[in-house]
Amino acid sequence: MCKMKNKICVLVLFVMACVVGVQAQSPCLSKEEFRQLQQKFITERAQLNSEEARQFFPLYFELQDKKHECNRIAWQKQRKGKNENTTEEEYAQIVEDVIQARIDVDRMELEYVRKYKRFLSSEKIYLIQKAEMRFHRELLKDMRSPKKGKGKK
What we know:
This protein is mostly helical. The protein contains five helices and no strands. It starts with a helix and ends in a 9-residue tail after the last helix.
């Protein structure tokens, strides 16, 4: 059970890191537009009623902002390793800092799941997690596939 939770957390982290990169690269979709699409998708897929959605999404987006900041700092540290003069001790610190960032994000995820449980059933939380992964998967799939009609006449 614990291994499955870890795998899900790692997958969620990976997807969120991809989405952060996608958001940064997509000038056509603002952060607000992205969040609106995500909120609509999750609400529909997890079958959240208006009260559940009203309570859930402010916390959810608060968590996303915290995770984004944690990952941003980890990426900054990792970029320091590109310097040719990086010492073995500095590499060791970078490796530990990146792993610590992942641990911090996992702790935040758990903290927020406990907050969600105050007003959502575990089943709804599960459906939200499933919808979130599906949303990111479909987003990545859409980005990889060539746009219909573009380049074809």
